[in-house]
Design goal:
The protein has about 280 residues and is α/β, with parallel strands linked by helices.
Length: about 280
């Protein structure tokens, strides 16, 4: 990302991938399909690509020949992404891929020239306001759609409810807005800021919900995702508000037991954003 990024592990990205696939908006994919030029090779730049989950999800949903340009600062994640992009589109046309290691917050429109589509996932909430403005300006300088999925919005629902849920959620949201080496992250405010930024530059912006649904009743999702998410959610809240340590240990034990026994349902709300040139 930039000089002091939030580090994301390949194991966490792998664990969450199926939940991401289920959550992303199919409605926005339909709009993207209509906007891609028919009969031409689509050049798709995936910014902050991680291990390439966006390409694995989206490439088989689009028709026609595609060339994916995967950009990320993490060489290890790029190495995984380079080998795991699907080879064929929905109609059997070839899909090719290249990787670029770079800081995507410092892009200029020239680097995106010739794109048919720009994508990103789970990215906006890790940017600062200035980084978001630079990202939006670079993307808006290219006459193509911009699809950004799975940005957190600060709303989590757990069933059954617990009296500590709201306090932990508030501390977690504050942690999402924390300073990292002088960088104030946008966290749950990122989607609203992006809508405003794209709007100022004349784009039409469409936002749709993309909630994770974890726990009871969610077949084929990794059983470990609920407990891993819960542990990270509580740990972030505890880091932000150390006074929570005494009460969150028994809370986490209760919630982990509920998850392991199939009694816990969690909805982690996200939003997908599609910016369209007018």
């Amino acid at each position: 990302m930039s000089a002091s990024p939030v580090v994301v592990s390949p194991s966490w990205l792998a664990l969450r991938e199926e939940a991401d696939v289920r959550a992303r908006s199919q409605e926005l994919v339909e709009v993207v399909r209509q906007r891609l030029p028919p009969g031409e090779r689509a050049v798709i730049q995936d910014l902050g690509c991680g291990t390439g989950s966006m390409g694995r999800w989206l490439a088989p949903l689009l028709t026609g020949e595609q060339h994916w340009v995967l950009s990320d600062r993490d060489a290890d994640l790029l190495a995984i992404a380079a080998t795991r992009t699907p080879a064929l589109s929905a109609d059997g046309a070839p899909v090719s891929v290249e990787t670029r290691r770079r800081d995507i917050t410092r892009l200029d429109p020239g680097e995106l020239a010739g794109c048919s589509l720009i994508t990103a996932s789970a990215l906006l909430d890790m940017l600062t306001a200035d980084e978001l403005d630079r990202f939006v300006a670079a993307c808006a300088g290219v006459d193509c759609p911009v699809l950004v999925t799975l940005s957190v919005i600060g709303l989590v629902e757990l069933q059954p409810a617990d009296p500590l849920d709201e306090r932990i959620a508030a501390a977690f949201n504050a942690h999402q807005r924390r300073k990292v080496d002088g960088r104030r992250l946008l966290g749950p405010d990122a989607v609203g800021a992006a809508v405003e930024a794209f709007g100022r530059l004349g784009a039409e912006v469409v936002v749709r919900p993309s909630p994770w649904r974890l726990g009871a009743g969610q077949e084929n999702l990794s059983a470990g995702l609920s407990t891993e998410w819960l542990a990270g959610w509580v740990a972030a809240a505890r880091e932000q508000e150390p006074d929570l340590a005494a009460v969150t240990t028994p809370y986490e034990e209760r919630r982990t037991a509920d998850a392991a026994q199939g009694r816990l349902r969690v909805t982690v709300h996200h939003q997908d954003l599609l910016a369209l040139p007018r």
